[in-house]
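1st attempt posting a full record on here, be nice pls
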Amino acid sequence: MNDNRNDPDRIAAVMREHVGLMNSAVPWGNEVGFEVTKIEPGHVWGRQPWAENLVGDPDTGVIHGGVITTFLDNLSGMACTAAMTKLRFVATIDLRIDYMRPAEKGLDIIGEAECYRVTKSVCFTRAWAYHGTREKLIATSAGTFAINKPRFGSQSPQGKTEV
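the predicted structure (as tokens):
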């Protein structure tokens, strides 16, 4: 019998099935209203809709940089989980954001994040925020994330108790 509990494709599938729950579990991420649009092992894509309440400069209508940081941080953390062979959550250790140009008023921001290395206790990521394609970069990020230990007696997404 093949036990595929440690399969990254299965982890990504579980994440896709529960993406709404994952989004709602992070209060600030939930507040800005971003959505995850695609999940693959080690890679997550999303969309941050433009909204008036997210504007940082009322004169230009540009979305506040903190919204973009939140967006890339959340996508990067999810990419970490999607890269692992066991379902684990992560916490941001360090996140560097490089802003290339302001986001355009009224346009949604597309984001993608990849986890390119997983060690025993830390994941490493890079991410991009842009309009349309990466040629219209708004910001990039590089991050490190601590892998949280499983909680004793926690429930798996299938309702089974994990140790």
